[in-house]
Amino acid sequence: MAEVVEELETGGAKQTFKELFSGAAGGVAQVLIGEWGFVLDVSVQFGGFHYARRQFEARNTLSGKPADLSYTQLYLSGAFAGLANSYLSGPIEHVRIRLQTQPHGAGRLYNGPIDCMRKLVRQGGGIGGLYRGQVVTLAREAMAYGTWFLTFEYLMRLHTRRTSTPRSSIPAPLIALYGGIAGEVLWLSSYPFDVVKSKMQSDGFGAGMRYANMRDVWRQTWREEGMRGFWKGIGPTCVRALPVSAGTFIVVEMVMRAMG
Known about the structure:
Blueprint: H1 2-10, H2 12-33, H3 39-62, H4 71-101, H5 113-123, H6 127-130, H7 134-163, H8 172-201, H9 214-225, H10 234-259
Helix pairs in contact: 1-3, 2-3, 2-10, 3-4, 4-5, 4-7, 7-8, 8-10
């Protein structure tokens, strides 16, 4: 028993490398599909999820239960992955939003990502300027990736139970389908948080600041637009999310199978 637990807890360098590498491959898939994010983000997401999964497996085994995670544990593993990733995604998305929303031509505010980061730190009075909206980012990432991984793993388990076949035999089109559905659930469960985050990260500094804090964003949005204000743009987001999420999961799953 002790040897099994130790193996589950450590996972080994080979397993860790496989999870990070397969996650990075999933990140490359996102770029190729059209989601111009960062490969490192996806690598951290999958590395974090499988790290938390192994900890739960070890805990379950130590208590004499089956090693397989409960659905609550799957959600918590995904939430852990989201929280770990938030320290990358927060500033990365902040910079991206600033670059996308700045005026063009002579009114241009930033000369690329590095210049944007430097000015955000200066205008925000330190590193907090770069990490503006981080609290709501933490909430979004935990909810989003908790439901993302939970949905995908639930559908994969459901398939293996119904067909009495191993996970490794699930065909690629079905993996893509399950991954796509997971992508839709990700955004449906977290989109209001993303709206609030985007408003905070596109807000001005000093005298040009419209929102005092995260709570103020929620209050003003509700007063001016009602519930609809938290769901603007959800349609195009879900259309984009389906192929991106499907491509990510199928690449990660196929790479992990190939690596053994």
